[in-house]
Amino acid sequence: SFDILCTHPMFGPQSGKHGWGGLPFVYERVRQKDAPRCEEFIQWWDAQGCRMVDMTCELHDELAAGSQFVTHFTGRVLARLGLRTTPINTKGFESLLQLVDNTCKDSFDLFYALYKCNPNSEKQL
What we know:
This protein is an alpha+beta fold. The chain is built from four helices and three strands; from the N terminus they run E-E-H-E-H-H-H. A three-stranded mixed sheet has the order 1-2-3, with helices on one face.
């Protein structure tokens, strides 16, 4: 007799380092034996300012492959190019440098798990 509440805060140390306000926190109530306990957990994250998103695990995986995996994959590919700041950076180039910085500060294990543990990620390549 236990609850199953699947959760995924869609942020990590880099994107959440200045606070969690407005950042998405995905959850699905899979099985609730103690509904008030699950709601208390969800409400705690909501009170921290997270944008709570009630979504099935299947939809989460589909959307995460198209956003989170693609972001990390692109950042890792750009890092391999050895991009460096220049005196004439465009705003777009600055965004690319920031993408490389943000994604490469996360562990390779995270990147690998985004690919290996989500069957939807391979479809993005």
